[in-house]
Amino acid sequence: MSPRGGYRPNAGRPSAPSERLRIPKPHVPAVLDLVERLKRGETEGVDELGMLAWSSSFTLPHYTEVPCGFASPAEDYLEGAIDLNEVVMDPHHREATYLVRAKGHSMTGAGIFDGDELVVDRALTPKNGSIVVAVYQGKATCKRLRFMPDGRPYLKAENPHFEDRVIAEGDEFEIWGVVRYALHKLI
């Protein structure tokens, strides 16, 4: 028997119970960052259970207004803080609100561009003219909801280079929510 390799009692890393975790892909970087911070002994913003102390709100300084012309020095004062959750989310629909990233160029006429983050509220009732996230024929899409004179819904693209989709009887069609905001970078 070779003195190298193979099983040797009490050799190698101590055995510790492990468990496989399923983490949504968008959250993986934050979880890995948390693990690395804890390995380095950084505990700022981490509670006693080793979890990030996530705040239910995110506030930024809020100034009264920003003129889009020439500003007056008298208008340079801070009004307070504003919670971004209160700006983009109905507080009664917190559990029904989610973000989704827009892909493509069919909604540029509505100010929605490729890569924008859309704030979608499932609790809102879609109306004629609402911008919605829907599933049509098994594929998710973001379009403006319109109705034909006979009451049939159709999904209108806000770019003339893309076709509208009239929903026929028997088509797979479900609305996943109404878009409240489109968040996009300017630079």
Return the domain count.
3
- Examine the coordinates and then state which fold CATH places here, giving the name of the CATH topology of the largest domain: Umud Fragment, subunit A
Average pLDDT works out at 78
CATH class of the largest domain: Mainly Beta
Total of helices: 2
In terms of quaternary structure, the protein is single chain
Estimated radius of gyration: 25 Å
Approximately how much helix is present in the residues? under 10%
Residue share in β-strands: 25-35%
Strand order of the largest sheet: 3-4-9-5-6-7-8
What characteristic shape results from the CA principal axes?
extended
- State the distance separating the first and last CA atoms: 65 Å
Query: By helix and strand content, what is the structural category?
Result: mainly beta
Largest sheet: 7 strands, antiparallel
Number of separate strands: 9
Which regions are unreliable across 5 or more consecutive residues at pLDDT < 50?
Answer: 47-56
The name of the CATH architecture of the largest domain is Ribbon
Helix-strand topology string: HEEHEEEEEEE
By CATH, the superfamily of the largest domain comes out as Umud Fragment, subunit A
Task: Explain this structure.
With 187 residues, the protein is mainly beta. The chain folds into three domains: 23-54, no CATH class; 61-86, no CATH class; 89-183, Umud Fragment, subunit A, CATH 2.10.109.10. Helix content is 9%, strand content 28%. The chain has two helices and nine strands. It has helices at 28-39, 84-88; strands spanning 59-63, 78-83, 97-101, 117-121, 131-136, 139-147, 153-156, 165-166, 173-183. The protein has a seven-stranded antiparallel β-sheet, with no helix packed on it. A two-stranded antiparallel sheet has the order 1-2. Strand 6 and strand 7 (153-156) form a beta hairpin. The chain is extended, with a radius of gyration of 25 Å. The N and C termini lie far apart (65 Å). Residues 47-56 have low confidence and may be disordered.
